[in-house]
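Hey, I was hoping to borrow your eyes for a little while. There's a protein on my desk that I can't quite get my head around. The fold is given in discrete form, as structure tokens running alongside the sequence. I'd be grateful if you could look everything over and explain what you see. Here's the protein in full, and shout if anything looks odd to you:
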Amino acid sequence: MKHVRAALAVVVSIAAVGAAQGAQAAGRACPNPAFQREAQAAIDAYKQDDVFSGAVLVAVDGHPVLRWGVGLADRELATPATPNMKFRIGSITKQFTATAILQLQEAGKLSVDDPVSKYYTDAPPAWARITIRHLLNHRSGIPSYTGLPGFFDREARLPKTPEELIKLTRDKPLEFEPGSRFAYDNSGYILLGYIVEKVSGERYADYLQKHIFGPLGMAHSGFDETGPIMVGRAHGYDRGRDGAWRNAAFLDMSVPYAAGSLYSTVDDLLIWDQAIYAGRLLTPESLKAMFTDAGSHYGFGFVIDQKWGQDRIWHNGGINGFTASFQRYIKPHVTAIALANEATGATDKVAADLAGLCLGADVYPKPASETPAALARDAGFYELSPTAVVELQVRGGTLVGRTTGQPDITYYPQGGGGFFARTVDAAIKLDTGPDGRATAATFKQGLQSLHAKRIDAAEAARLASARGAGQPHGRAGRQRGGAAPGDRGGAVRRGRLQPPRRQARPRDAAPVPRPEGAPGRAGRPYVAQVRGRRPGRGGHLRVRIREGIAGMANLTRRRRPDRRALRPASVVGLRPRPPGSR
């Protein structure tokens, strides 16, 4: 594998140098003069924890200051990822669908306040009060087809027409009165795609090519189809139950349709970003409508919130084997794009971290140094519950958290018995005895905390044996790999304190690090809940994350519907946290 690592290093370094030189030549740079060095350290952390591969781009005023390929585009052929490669973008598709609707409104062919039944004549009586506007901002009350029990196991592999997709939930009761609340809904965007075809007389894919991609010169974007050969197409991966990488489950791309079937590149999405600023496709009135928060931090195909003290307009996406995040920081004109060819909950955080570093924000705590002897005293097994044990091991000047079937999480010392992670919103606080040896630990993720007592290796082995695992956590069946949206076809697993084999994210799909800024009940963002696995399920610590609107496409397999406030196809257990908190 040495030649593979060397090739990856060359790809990253060449791309980095080229982007930096281009930005300097154009007179554009991040407010933070140390951005390149700090960004390299951040990406190195994600590579070390093996939780992100794909392409990243950061631009200031439309000029790239960072443009890198990370990891592998094809794991079987050991092909390095490059910034030119094409990735499925899941629910980022929704903003293009919304643009098509607004273009048709500007042409006088429809109004966003028209009832859906005007264009879909087979609409049931319950849909009489549903308007196109309700579909755009996820307030229709129509159940999401991706949340139907067994959908990804039975239906998602077969070709579907838009009419067939609509019929999946057409006759089901509404979940609430149209317009009364927000619930992320892929069915709404299927209906929008149908309306685009009905009104324009063109296939959805053809309309986007003719009226969006073609005029903007987005030559490497389009409606993805599995059959045709596409040069530069990245292959998608997720993790198996043993934590090893595997090819993502097949999904017929007619199924995500106008809710999540597009592919693109980081460069094309930057073209799209600049076209929005320039108003090349929509009038100022249409753009204002698109970026107006209708509640729950959502407009038309975009999330509207704040990050790093800046107004942010963004969306993410998740689909079998892929996750994506497209983030626009309006006032400083900073754009951060991360496209991953794996089901990973890290993609939103990668984009947000790079944007924050460019802006000079305090993205990570300041690390402290610890002696090898001190770290050795802290290493060991910590029991969160009889079915959840975390093993901490020393690696260099850090502690590495290990749990069966999940990627490692590296924790960096920050002094006073505290450790923080870079690749997930997680931290550890150790309690020590008079001899300086750790006796217990508090594991934190988001606003959730779990206390764990320290146990010896024999007790860890006994607990594992009682669960039927036969080995201490972190050693049984562990293979390095990565996860992604659609995790397990469902959620995105991210590490010890992150989503497990079971995922469901648009979390559009994606998990461990919670979806950045994803709105929850009453418009509040979600944070992950840390839970121990049930007996007989491997006993590793897992964090369940129900993706928010920003969430990935929800187009991942084996998700089970969560019928609370947000419902990308289904991930589990987030709790609201105050808006504006980091």
Remarks:
- The chain has 13 helices and 24 strands.
